[in-house]
Give the backbone structure.
Amino acid sequence: MTGLRPYRAIASARFRMLLQYRGAALAGLWTQVFFGLVLIMVYEAFYRSAPAVRPMAFAQITTYVWLGQALLAMLPWNVDTEIRETVRSGAIAYELARPVDLYGAWYARAVAQRTAPTLLRAAPMAVFACAVLPVIGLGEWRLAPPPSWAAAAGFVATVACALVLSCALSVLVNISLMWTVAGDGAVMLFTTAASLLSGLVIPLPLMPEWAQVGLSWLPFAGLFDLPFRIYNGHIAAGDVAMVVVRQLGWTVALIGSGRWLLGRGMRRVVVLGG
Amino acid sequence: MPQIVVEQLVKTYQVAERAPGLWGALRGLVRRKHRTVRALDGISFAIERGELVGYIGPNGAGKSTTVKALSGILVPDSGRCEVAGRVPWQQRIAHVAQIGVVFGQRTQLWWDLPVIESFELLRDIYRVPPDRYARARDQMIGLLDLAPLLDVPVRQLSLGQRMRCDLAAALLHEPAILFLDEPTIGLDAPSKLAVRDFIQRLNRDRGVTVILTTHDMDDIEALCTRVMVIAGGKILSDGTLAALRGQVTRERWLTVDLASADAAIDEPDATVIRRDGGRVCLAFDPQAVAPAELIRRVTSRHAVRDLFVENPPIETIVARLYAAHGGGEAGSEP
Amino acid sequence: MAGAFGLYRAYAAASIRSQLSYRASLVMTTIGIFLVTASEFVAVWALFDRFGQVRGWTLPEAALLYGMSSVSWAVCDAIGRGFDVFGDMVKTGGFDRLLLRPRSTVLQLLGQDFTLRRFGRLAQGLLVLGYAAVAGTIDWTVGRAVLLAGAIACGVCAFLGLLVLQATSAFWTIDKLEVWNAFTYGGLTMSRYPLPLYRPWFRAVFIFVIPLACVTYFPGVVILGRAEPLGAPAIAGWLAPLAGPAFLALGLQVWRIGIRHYRSTGS
């Protein structure tokens, strides 16, 4: 697969660069722990106040929350600042002179941007939520192991699919920057959608009943909600195939529309003369 | 009494040393190793009102530490420093109202606003009375030819235009002392000349004391009657350019254009320092061999088309001085 | 001659004119921020929609707390932006420029960046506050209205104190500033729900260390006319907000220490 070599090189160079931000990761870990604790206390209070309502067991909620905090950096929530600079400065016109496919190059960068910070943050977060919480007497808030090996395997598979999906969304965010003014607003809407509709801000099963079908068919549920519910057993392990089909279907559609938009954006850049 | 007095000024920094790798980073969290760097190692000098002093040295020599101490940003460890009768870091606000500072690399103007609005904001910041502001502003507009730039947002100015505006901005409160940090960096030739001309007039006509740090020796040659050289936190030289030259070397250079590109040239009292085809550059000590004598010898032995004698450029002098003190980045000595 | 307030006005006016030179982008990001923050309220609404109430608090009651903390934070964020981005300023040496000017550094930083687009957040907070004021069962009196305004002003001080402390820590470390997000954004999230639903140790942090609960929850209980279940005396709702300005004063003292450190290390 020598055709992929430049893209692998782009991804791995970027990956190594991003791994340097260990201090920021450590600070981020503390913030994530804090947010996780606040959210769990809030859900706990609601669960105790209305014992009859059970869209998802409380133990499943805590697991869901910690997974979200651990994998936060995997969401397509921020733009690639270097790409923004190239677009804003007009230097993007020179990208046409490079012998690599621009979409592929941006996708490779997105892969690094979504994996490196996640790797730095996820492991210590998992240690805290699985091991430290029970030790300090907060065992009922912990990140529980998956109920079965099948759920664990399904989680691994769907998180991998969530990653490719998230990268396709990330590239789309970067592409939107080519429409300067509209881009600013689009980036923000994207960020909001990614955090609210993926289940980061509030687990999707807690959203109103009437919204459930719509939420689960949007691409964002494939980022966090569906994999997390496979992990905590809220979705049966037998349904993994269906989830993967949804995630990959969205990925293909988003890559297709991303390529189309990038083509239009580049034509604009050329017409405007960089 | 001199306007600026510096005596035995010392400033040390603690630099954290971190072992490489993840293990080093983790260990650094628990116990940090520190190394002490003496940025200023007991420097002393005095500057009279109205002097125009060049302050040069390799990167990391202590130039900006000195300027920071003189401008009241930085508190030194020990030593005495008085500027216009004040200790800069003890009375920061009173002190900085009397000085102007220009950084060639960073503008102090508001990026998205027209130049004139930055001027007005600085008027409010420095509490300049309206009549004094109007006078200073109009003088600057005249001297620096700013009239066509006043309504242009700073982000749209060329580097040279911006530097002219920055100079004006630093002088609206009519400071008695002006610190310039690389004011000509990155400028094209006409802009450089305009900036130099302005600095000279400011100093000559209005008696403003100017302290100029730069890496551009042409700035120094064009402007400064006095040069201070700092390296490794110590002042290596302080005096006129001629004195600086004399301190480093008596050497002079004889450049000859030989008729034949491959003729061997061999002079016992001179060394070949550069050769480019027929053009040969010889270094000699004029006290060991008189220039006229050396020229006679060379022209008698070789067919010479042209020749001239010169002092080594000031860059070379300075580079040698830095190198002799184990200084900095000056490895490009010819 | 410009006094401190005059200079602040000049700074703010300059900052506003700067932003108006990118008008279209400003409108877009303001709307964007409005929608982003509105989505935060969606989460609160969804929980009440599911569960009906939490510890006897209904949505309009919780919305009062939400509105108070959102408006406080929005105002603080608009005027204190200079402190928020202070880490970059130290890194690039931009702070030296402030020290070279004959004015207080706090005043210069407050004037640095008066961010208009934060009005998106302010609008959202005011809307929620409006909803709480009319949808709930608040028995409005002059005293309660004054308390609301005062608590919001004290809330601005409390959040500003946090930003000042965050900025001060930039004198020692730059790459770990994200730690403060736990207190600013985490504190903002915390203050949207009634304090009794948190564990005692957590409450203690936001009452006694970072007094965000003092500027939202305690006055909120008085405005709503609810019984206070944590056993605070009735007068607490009126006095607790003063912890906000006190916290800011403390932050400014630490800021002075930070500047002294910066000027002696130059780092």
Observations:
- The domain at 250-311 of chain B is CATH 3.30.70 (Alpha-Beta Plaits).
